[in-house]
């Protein structure tokens, strides 16, 4: 289980670290150019073995996560499996140093901002911690919210009542919940009011007490909307605000509430700000280069922009043959 089928996990470690790994029975021999590389590979295997003993299934994602954690030079007391979240369906552990810092912040602080690119686990880990708090009776309910802002499409013409129109905006929150709770239990908790999933507009005028409240995609709020949301916080509540400032769908010229709040609240005691970057992306391996490509300069230099298709002349002998 540790090595993987055909020792694929060991091969993955060899790809990422300058070491050679040979297994004989239940013994592993690691050879490398430096003691540091050998010790790093050994620590990755020990981390993965610890996760196996806690019931986690080890695959490529877990190997890559252990390698990321090791590159962050975390000490033995900081290993990810020591900060796992157990839900009804799976055991969830941090897969990067920033994710580990995020889990600690979610545990310690009553208001946490998570800022960074897509695929870094901002919403997923917040929902996991919220489910754990509900499971431990540390809160009475979960409230998950998103601003219903159209991502370049007009959906108002679609048929259906208000719920049917806004549900597509909230689908990622349903997906995260169903990854951690059995399908029947999710629906039961929604019907009983223990879990509420609603657009941001539904928060106005309420006081949210003894609840774990998550606002996702906060970059699509205005400063007034985010202020309204933050001031809903009541006794015994925790709030998490997540968003990616580079992916706003607000009309041009409209300031983002997330950027405004981060600037205003960065130094307020009792509030945690966790910043993610591309190294924390835990989705498909192609997501990182895609984000890098979009954050770089636009395609086509000055030469390409000035280029024009050469007009075809009747006297050109290659006319009609080009593809």
How many H/I helical runs?
Answer: 11
What is the SS-derived class? Answer: alpha/beta
Helix content: 25-40%
Rounded radius of gyration (Å): 24 Å
Mean pLDDT: 82
Distance between the termini: 52 Å
Count of individual beta strands: 10
Which of globular, elongated, flat, extended, rod-shaped describes the shape? globular
Main pleated sheet: 6 strands, parallel
Order of helices and strands: HEEHHEEHEHEHHEEHEHEHH
Strand coverage percent: 5-15%
In what order do the strands lie side by side in the largest sheet?
A: 7-6-8-9-5-10
Report what the structure shows.
- The chain has helices spanning 8-16, 35-53, 60-71, 97-108, 122-135, 162-178, 183-192, 223-230, 257-265, 287-295, 302-306; strands at residues 19-24, 27-32, 85-86, 91-92, 111-115, 141-146, 195-199, 211-215, 238-243, 271-275.
- With 323 residues, the chain is α/β, with parallel strands linked by helices.
- A hairpin with a 4-residue loop joins strand 3 and strand 4 (91-92).
- The model is unreliable at 151-155 and 303-323 (pLDDT under 50).
Which helices and strands appear, and what pairs or packs with what?
Layout: H1 8-16, E1 19-24, E2 27-32, H2 35-53, H3 60-71, E3 85-86, E4 91-92, H4 97-108, E5 111-115, H5 122-135, E6 141-146, H6 162-178, H7 183-192, E7 195-199, E8 211-215, H8 223-230, E9 238-243, H9 257-265, E10 271-275, H10 287-295, H11 302-306
Parallel strand pairs: 5-9, 5-10, 6-7, 6-8, 8-9
Antiparallel strand pairs: 1-2, 3-4
Helix pairs in contact: 1-3, 2-3, 4-5, 8-9
